[in-house]
């Protein structure tokens, strides 16, 4: 999947954190309405305090959601993308997930 199709208000192409979010969404969440909805629900549960944190192991990344930030760790290393954990503000990640959710549902309904 093309990461260039993953955009949200405020996205900065070439920014390592933004590129990691785009890669996570396109590679691990993909165009699955169920997966993106679950992700949005878990973010909401962490933000509201119903969950202290939440983790998801995907094909390419390991995601940890905390009240103030997320951590996305690559399950692989390539020359194009350094491995290791990238810490990203939860608000930035949430904006991206909401935009991806709209894209996925828009595609799902054929509109």
Question: Could you characterize what this model shows?
Answer:
The chain has 111 residues and is of the alpha+beta class. It has one domain (3-109). Helices cover 45% and strands 18% of the residues. The chain has helices at 16-29, 33-48, 90-109, and strands at residues 54-57, 61-65, 69-74, 85-89. The radius of gyration is 13 Å and the shape is globular. The model has no long low-confidence stretch (mean pLDDT 87).
Which features does this protein show?
globular, 3 helices, alpha+beta
Summarize the structure.
With 111 residues, the chain is α+β, with helices and mostly antiparallel strands. The chain contains 3 helices and 4 strands; from the N terminus they run ααββββα.
Task: Indicate the multimeric state.
Answer: single chain
Low-confidence regions: none
Q: Please tell me the overall pLDDT.
A: 87
Indicate the proportion of strand residues: 15-25%
State the end-to-end CA separation: 20 Å
How many structural domains can be distinguished in the coordinates? 1
Cα-atom Rg, whole angstroms? Answer: 13 Å
